[in-house]
Every structure is written in structure tokens, then in C-alpha cells.
Task: structure prediction
Amino acid sequence: MKSTKGNLIRASMASAPRKKECILLNSGICLKCNVVVVSEKLEDHSGCFCGNVIIGGGKVYLGRSVVDRSLYRELSEVGVRPKKLTLSLV
Ligand SMILES: [Zn+2]
Result:
């Protein structure tokens, strides 16, 4: 019965929420006017030229206001942020 116990532990770990997952890029493209809209900050609500796409929420939430969804493509990236970025300045 040792193997059964091991499987149970593994299953419970797999279903646990990934706490470190966050919004890396909050962005989308309007296919009507070909403008990539990016929201950098929470209060930053950016729109494209034709007004089809408005994106907000920054790195906090994926705020979307899209008039025609057939003319919109999601570009956002959600994942685990790298722990440390070491920049070496030469
Ligand atoms: Zn547009």
C-alpha cells in the first residue's frame, strides 16, 4: 500500500493553486487598425485608434472592453515571474 499513499500526495500537490503565477504582459491587438494595446499599470486604460479595444488593469487583472471580438486577438502572458533578474552592466 506504500505506492497508493505516494500517489495521493502527488495528486494533492498537483491540484494546489500556483501562488506565484501572475500577469507578465497585459496586452491585446486590434485587428481592425493593427494596433497592439498594452496596459502597464492598474489605472492605465489604453485603447487602440479605432476604439475597438480598450485594455486595463496592468499587472493586477486582465481588463477588457472589446466591441468586435472577431477583430481582437489576445496577446497577454500569464505565468511565473523569474525569481531574480541579474543584469550585468558592461
Ligand atoms: Zn482598433
Residues 54 and 83 are 30 Å apart (CA to CA). The helical segments are 2-15.
